[in-house]
Amino acid sequence: MLYYVVSLLSQIYCNGPILQAVQEAHLFPDSKYFVDMPLKQDPVSTLRDFYELGDSVKEVSVLEAFVESHFEAPGQELIEVYPDDWAPYPNGFQHIDDYRLKRWALHLHRIWRDLCRRVKDDVRVHQERYSLLYVPHSFIIPGGRFREFYYWDTFWILKGLLFSEMYDTAKGVILNLIFMVDNHGFVPNGGRVYYLSRSQPPLLTPMVYEYFLATGDLDFVEQVLPTLEKEQHFWNLNRARSFLHPETKEEMFQYYQYRATMKFPRPESYREDVELAKGLSSDAEREAMWSNVASAAETGWDFSTRWFAQEGPGMHELKSIRTWSIVPVDLNAFMCLNMRYMASFYEIFGNFEKKNEYYGRYQKMKLAIKRLHWNETDGIWYDYDLEREAHSNTYYVSNALPLYSKCYDDEDDVTPYKVFEYLKREGVLNFTRGIPTSLAMGSIQQWDKENAWPPMVHMVVEAFRTSGDLNLMKAAEQMATQWLVVNYKGYVSTYAMFEKYNVSMINEEGVAGSGGEYEVQKGFGWTNGVILDLLDKYGSKISVSGAAVPNGVRFLPLTLEKMFVKTFSNKTVVFNVDPTELSVEQLKALIAEEEEIAVPDQRLVFAGCQLEDGTLLRAYGVDADSTIHLDLRLLGGGKKRKKKQYTGPKKQKHVRKKVKLAVLKLYKIDDNGKIHRQRLECNSASCGAGIFMAKHKDGRFYCGKCHQTLKEKK
């Protein structure tokens, strides 16, 4: 059933006469806009109505009318949701020492609420009307034009969610990807039907590993482990290749490539791909071109000179793209990481047969990466060019990623230093605003030149941070500091986080990157996740107090949120304030200005507790969208009595009257001068000597200790 639905949707959104007509007519500025529009009726009826129009659809007005009558505006299939596990002040943020960084972290933490979406249930019921693929749990979108989830973006989004202590949301985004594998056999590039022809860097298993480290939830790992195995099978079946070592011609190695098989333009970039294929004389050439373009999109690096010809005519131009000829070092590093984590999972559950299987594959993969990608002369890993049978010995930040995946010999403590020296030798570390993706400065592609991408910076920092060497760990801290300062300055000057940043020294710090097929996007899911994870690792060490930010701004302005005050007359007053910093007195002053109620007459109550002056609202749990109740102070119904003035104590303390020589009443001296006690000693066994009984006027003797009463003998 699902295959049938996807087949129908493909005729609308992936490849067909409607897609071709709309995209070639330029009805919308962005090619992606149309393929995100839901259908108003089923695909069969839509196609029938389109064919009935005949040649009249060549007129723009007729085509516009058809689209308006048969399609909805994009985005209506999604619901903005407030995450149930979002709390205003995560406990982990307390160890961020710098006040400015802590406030910034709270700003980014609040952006999760703006980026959280859930698919409407109607998509599940009528999947045939939507290009959006149904998933059962809420998720975080990247932002901007990207209205759906994206595979490898989710890894860094997850890192941020875990630091924000949003464990339920983090679990949900993983389960959505698990849902994709269970229903489609793999995780597609993103959550649209037109992304089902390709995947993205395989990071689902590392996501489960990161979630397990944060929560210790073994039951969850056991639940999803069969699906992780299924995804590994997809990559082994569809993206693995075997070949003889180019030098020895003896050893057989398995390696992985990005090899999407789509033979038509990408629907979300239709016009761009059609334009790119102009000048090619045959269908075979065009199909090969589009397959290589789709494969480059599968890498996540769309686009980079990394996939272009490195010599000859068309060198470093998109027309020379040949992704199928490149064995990417980062993909093989990711697969190596997956094998290591899978072995760890099976060891935890006592399945040593599977553990040994994956551990053996992990060891073979490490050897393959060393034999195929490692260049001993330069001290770095390179992509391998199958056409030239040689390394692509050009700097790309991906060269260092086997260090992040720990895909080198465990006892090798020299390799991390060699990688660091390579980066220094290439001049990469001279960029004090981030790690550039490449040094191809003449390129117009977004995964080149001065652009730095948050995931790449994060992986390089993590590679050196976890190296175990103090000097390299210090270098990692410096890289993290530089990246935090750049992002912080960009945020305080624009109030936005970007998907990429320009690290050129000729621009101001914090400027968005450039290049690519679309305008730079704000939001931004993986950027926020990287910053929050770096603050988790370095928040107690790093400060931006000395960083001069644009326009003289020294710290972030207050984040304004809505807060409601319900008055005694049942009127609700809305205030735009920052509940994290507002005091009770400040709120009373705002109420006095708005409602003309004197501050001394106000009595504020929240959750049954009276708000006392001298405290912040957050001390009472007040947050955005909270409702505080305003009452007047009650002074009583009767006339106020004048308070009596006392010159002395209200009650006189009783003072026992002293009798001179009163002690003589207790003793008597006889005629012989002998002294006799006048009081009777208690004869009780519990009292004994020294305990005397009181004598009453009626002749009774009473012991105050044991309560014995005796009568006087006559």
UniProtKB/TrEMBL annotation:
GO terms for biological process: translation. The keyword Hydrolase applies. Its EC number is 3.2.1.28. Keywords: Glycosidase, Hydrolase, Isopeptide bond, Ribonucleoprotein, Ribosomal protein, Zinc. GO terms for molecular function: alpha,alpha-trehalase activity. SUPFAM superfamilies: Six-hairpin glycosidases, Ubiquitin-like, Zn-binding ribosomal proteins. It catalyses: alpha,alpha-trehalose + H2O = alpha-D-glucose + beta-D-glucose. InterPro entries: 6-hairpin_glycosidase_sf, 6hp_glycosidase-like_sf, Glyco_hydro_37, Ribosomal_eS31, Ribosomal_eS31_euk-type_sf, Ribosomal_zn-bd, Ubiquitin-like_dom, Ubiquitin-like_domsf. One of its GO terms (cellular component) is ribosome. Residues 561-637 form the Ubiquitin-like domain. It holds the Pfam family Trehalase. SMART domains: Ribosomal_S27, UBQ. In the N-terminal section; belongs to the ubiquitin family. This is Trehalase. It comes from Heterodera trifolii.
